[in-house]
Hints:
By secondary structure, this protein is of the alpha+beta class. It folds into two domains: 4-176 and 294-374, Zn peptidases (Aminopeptidase); 178-292, 2-Layer Sandwich (Alpha-Beta Plaits), CATH 3.30.70. 30% of the residues lie in helices and 25% in strands. The protein is built from nine helices and 17 strands. The strands form four sheets. It has a six-stranded mixed beta sheet with strand order 1-2-6-3-7-16, sandwiched between helices. Strands 9, 10, 11, 12 and 13 form a five-stranded antiparallel beta sheet that branches. Strand 4 and strand 5 form a beta hairpin. It starts with a helix and ends with a helix. 45% of the residues are buried.
Amino acid sequence: MDSIVDLLRELVAIPSINPMGKTEASGKFCEKDLAEFVAAAMKRCSIDVEMYDVSPNRPNVVGFVDVKAERTLMLEAHLDTVFVDGMTVDPFAATIEHGRLYGRGSCDTKGALAAFMHAVCTLLKEGKKPKYNIILAAVADEEFGFTGAEALVARGLKADAAIVGEPTELHIVRAHKGVLRWKVRTAGLASHSAYPSRGRNAIYSMAQVVTHLQEHAHWLQSLPPHPLLGSPSLNVGTIEGGQVVNIVPDRCVIEVDRRMMPGETAADALRLVKEALAGVPDWEFDEPYLSAAGMEVAPDASIVTMLSDAVAHVLGNVVVESAHYGTDAGQYNRAGVPSVVFGPGNIAQAHTAGEFIDITQLEQASKIVTRLITA
């Protein structure tokens, strides 16, 4: 395989923007072109590859290296990126300056994908045998719905452990929160604003809902904190209602973001919210459009200790920590595959106008993965 920098430049140059539920999944707004490139690159390394659509033009790519080992390790990273609007660097030029590679997805998370692919393919091309069977997965739709990870699990994922690539600065994340998102609606009765008593104001109804949700959010923050992750949280992030100012609004919609603790289910979170809204009239919930589990593995879990040894060999020091954001690792842990989050880059660069990754970290990530699967 070409150098890891050349590989990442090719990955960044192929747009794979997540449509985020708002745009047709075609052209730049899908993972198809990037998935085809990744699949072809794996095949050139003599990796058995399966590619299948999660939704139209939005595939998962899954490579298999079967060395008849007792254990199987999955290396996974997502194909999709966020939008490029407002970027201050060319999102697809993969420009290199002062030891940094710039572009959309360079940090989140094509850098991790490049590190995983480069480590496995280089090993195979050198005729060396990994100590584990390897699943090399590049999945769709992590940035919006986690449907790529869900599809991978639904197709019968079997692995003894997994590393999910995200920009962690080569720290090992063994716990993070889950996320649940849904819409709440209130219905009213439209009338002329000169005669408001003839209508029923859906925004006023929603105001009661929001007040109770604020109280519920404060209650969540008062719960005994998780030793790594603190307390669960709830945020009302958007609100939209009415038509024009001189009509009593007959509808209002809010979106709610609920951060869940490891082991907490979407059903648990929704039940508590509904209890908090008991007595408030005229509201209804949509089905959640995003439900991603939190995750936690023990500090002495095999995947933590193995990866720690590899990191220590390359870097000399190891950081094991937690995160408040969600990742595909929650879906895999929920399915019984102990997973940690790990990769090059700084999460502070994710989704930014001048997104970049440090090339030294990129190269170190590949060395760490190589050490992990061979030592």
